[in-house]
Amino acid sequence: MKNIIIANWKCNPISQKEAKEIFDEIKAGIKDATAEIVVCPPFVYLALRSFSEGGFALGAQNLFWEEKGAFTGEISGAMLKDIGAEYVIIGHSERRKYFDETDEQVNQKIKKALEFGLKIIFCIGETAEEKEAGKREEVLQRQIQEGLKDVLDIDNINVAYEPVWAIGTGNNCSVEETKESIEFIRKFVKKDTRILYGGSVKSENSGAYIKEAGSNGLLVGGASLDGKEFIKIIQSAE
Q: Where does the record place the catalytic residues (predicted)?
């Protein structure tokens, strides 16, 4: 099974010039990479011609659950596929927190993305409050089962375990906790499903999540905006 390293740029950077600079650094550094590399920039940068020549896959950070119609501000799976995206992030904790996305909506998005042949980066994870209450496994099980309800094309699902309390905080999940969560998640997915870790990933800790915690890759947030740092993270997976 090939490891996968994903860059989630979130709502960054603020100009095409900066986006291209990060892209150029990544492109120059992945020539000998054995892992699969995916870059998920904001929607507006997906159409940059140079991005389609980067030697890595492109992913979107979200999509809507309808193909087209009167849904102002939304982007459909059909549009993403047409523009060259191969992957899409669905269920990220920031979508759940700031936009009140439910497990049901996540499920709708996954089904629609698969209709258009997109590969899924399905995010799950517990909050600090849920962790402290001893509900981590309960939350993970619910999010997996509700998010993948009636989903048949499991081969194109990648599950990203991102404990909410670790995202963007610098308080990354320990290798031991991550290993426990990955082993728990494996009970609910196919044997060959890739399970990733995300949450304050940086080059100093990235290798341990793959080599010790048993993840099949990483979903990298802020560190992926630094091309040199992202390359180090990719190299840690070799």
A: 92 (electrophile), 162 (proton acceptor)
